[in-house]
Every structure is written in C-alpha cells, then in structure tokens.
UniProtKB/TrEMBL annotation:
<dbReference type="GO" id="GO:0015074">
    <property type="term" value="P:DNA integration"/>
</dbReference>
<dbReference type="InterPro" id="IPR011010">
    <property type="entry name" value="DNA_brk_join_enz"/>
</dbReference>
<dbReference type="InterPro" id="IPR002104">
    <property type="entry name" value="Integrase_catalytic"/>
</dbReference>
<feature type="domain" description="Tyr recombinase">
    <location>
        <begin position="27"/>
        <end position="92"/>
    </location>
</feature>
<keyword id="KW-0233">DNA recombination</keyword>
<dbReference type="Pfam" id="PF00589">
    <property type="entry name" value="Phage_integrase"/>
</dbReference>
<dbReference type="GO" id="GO:0006310">
    <property type="term" value="P:DNA recombination"/>
</dbReference>
<dbReference type="InterPro" id="IPR013762">
    <property type="entry name" value="Integrase-like_cat_sf"/>
</dbReference>
<protein>
    <submittedName>
        <fullName>Tyrosine recombinase XerC</fullName>
    </submittedName>
</protein>
<dbReference type="GO" id="GO:0003677">
    <property type="term" value="F:DNA binding"/>
</dbReference>
Length: 92
C-alpha cells in the first residue's frame, strides 16, 4: 500500500512518489500568454463584479501575485488622474 488508494502504482514507493511531487512544485509558475490574459479578462468582465475586474487588471498590469493583492489595504493604494501607486508590504 502506498497511501494513494491502497495500490502500489508501477512499483514506486511512497518516498519516490513524494519526491516526484516535490520536484513538480519547485518549478516556477508559468506566466499566462497574452491570449490567455485576454481570455481571462474578457471572462471576468462578462460575468464578474467591478471589484473582480479591478483585481484581475491590477494583477495582470502590475505582476502582483494573488497573495500580495489579498494583503493590500486601502491605504496601500494611491490613485491619481493619470497614474497610481501600490505599496506591497509582503511578498517576494
């Protein structure tokens, strides 16, 4: 038994499966292509709330991660007529 449904898959031990999973997670996340970005934005604009559209636009245009955007507070954002400023207090 390997903890994955009770069967040993392909003769691999639990340690080998665990190592394989870790290797996959160590890879950097893949960035969305321009086409994928546009599809995501269109989908949110069609069915999402204005808040959702603003969050997706912020992430796509600034490169912020989900965790960084979630940690933002209102005082971290300054919006002017032609530009804005976002202060990220946590992140990489």
């Amino acid at each position: 038994m390997d903890g994955l449904g009770g069967r040993n898959r392909g003769g691999e031990g639990a340690a080998e499966i665990s190592k394989a999973c870790c290797r996959e997670q160590e890879k950097a996340p893949k960035a969305l292509s321009r086409r994928e970005q546009n599809r995501l934005l269109r989908a949110v604009e069609r069915g999402g709330k204005p808040r959702d559209v603003a969050l997706i636009r912020l992430m796509l245009n600034s490169g912020l991660r989900v965790g960084e955007v979630v940690a933002l507070k209102l005082e971290d954002i300054e919006i002017g007529e032609r530009h804005g400023k976002v202060v990220v207090r946590s992140g990489k």
